[in-house]
Amino acid sequence: MSKSFRYDAEKPAALPEQVRAEMSLEAGTGITRMHAAVHETMTVAALIASDYGLDRKTTFYNLRDNPKARSDVNDFIRGVVWNDDPACLLFDDNKDNNNMNYSTGAMWLIDFQVAKGGSITDRNIIGRSHFGDLSWLHGMGGIKGEWPTDTRTKITSYLEIMYKLACGDQGITPDTQLKDTWLRKYFSYFTFPTKYSDLRELLTANHKTPANIQHRAIGSCFHLLQDSYTHGHTRRVLLNPEDLDTSSPHLKFKPGSQGGKWGPVLNFHTYKGQDGDAHDHYDYTDLDMRAINPSNLDEFNGIVGARDAIELCITLANHWQKKTPWDGGVRQWLENTAFKIADGATASDESIE
User: Fold this and answer.
1) pLDDT (average), residues 89-110
2) What is the pLDDT of residues 178-195, one digit of tens each?
3) Between the CA of residue 217 and those of 47, 151, 256, what are the distances in Å?
């Protein structure tokens, strides 16, 4: 029988490193380059295993270190970074090099810290995405008390736009303006970008670059799916309680098991009010991502939630390759898998489980 699982968030440091639920970005070259490339490596793994058929020898690191080799693939990485960096401040973009030219990240950090301190303006899209009304970009509730079906509607409405953009034949193009989509709820004349900006400008922060917008859109979808399986973001029903190591007071699975199989959503957490250190504990990993072979999915078993998230990214990529219609196809699949709401689900709160 499936069950929900809670562990002691009061003492997060006691959680074994090898079983944390962590999904972080490497990002930046200077002060922001401090975390493991979990999102990036999971994205490469999904592209290898999917019908997209990325070369099995590909890693995030050989893409990063040889940025001109596969600029089309680089834009998947730029897309998966975008949810955390919608102002594109972690990169030095120009008309010739839009992909993996990392910045110091100093401007990103300023916007992040200002918003973390409680000052979130309509022009600070980084602050809005991490701490404000765009937190659904990370699979989280916007405010305490938000009903899970409302959060799911925001998530799937955004995924619909990005998926249709990626397909290119479902009524959404890079030239579609934000005011002509569901995103008009969040962008006005005074925001950055404005409601008159198009989706190309949204995903490139108005940089005049040769970006592959379709690939960025899929990457952004991947980020949202991946974040929704991180315990600091979402609490889910545990489907394989028999694999729990019951001798441990914390979330730990038996050797050789997948490291958690997770089902319907019980709670979309809110960042505001959370213990920031505890949240970060479950977003970051000490695992050496360079040592992980992205073509071997078993190597992700040590990151709780990663296998489920990668499998969903694989399926989404396959739908994209087949251009499966959103309505009557992809929407229903997502609402019955990644974003199925559990019986007894509760309104968003600041818990970390």
Assistant:
1) 83
2) 999 999 999 999 999 999
3) 14, 20, 35
Strand order in the sheet with 262-268: 3-4, 234-238, 262-268
Distance of CA 218 to the CA centre of its chain: 11
The terminus-to-terminus CA distance of the chain in angstroms comes to: 20
Radius of gyration of the chain, Cα coordinates, nearest whole angstrom: 19
**Other C-beta atoms lying within 10 Å of the C-beta of residue 98:** 24
Query: Is residue 313 helix, strand or coil?
Result: helix
Q: Which two tokens stand for residue 53?
A: 């058929």
pTM, two decimals, is 0.89
Task: Quote the tokens at residue 258.
Answer: 């997948």
Q: Is the dihedral of CA 51, 55, 59, 65 positive or negative?
A: negative
Distances (CA, A) of 137 to 11, 13, 161, 185, 302: 28, 27, 13, 14, 25
Q: Are 285 and 40 in contact (CB under 8 A)?
A: no
Say what the pLDDT of residue 353 is. Answer: 58
277's enclosing H/E stretch is helix 276-283
Instruction: Kindly give, in sequence order, each residue whose CB lies less than 8 Å from that of residue 292, ignoring residues fewer than 6 positions away.
Output: 41, 299, 300
What is the distance between the alpha carbons of residues 342 and 205, in angstroms, rounded to a whole number?
37
DSSP 8-state class, residue 198: B
Single out the residue of 322, 94, 59 nearest to residue 211, CA to CA.
Answer: 94
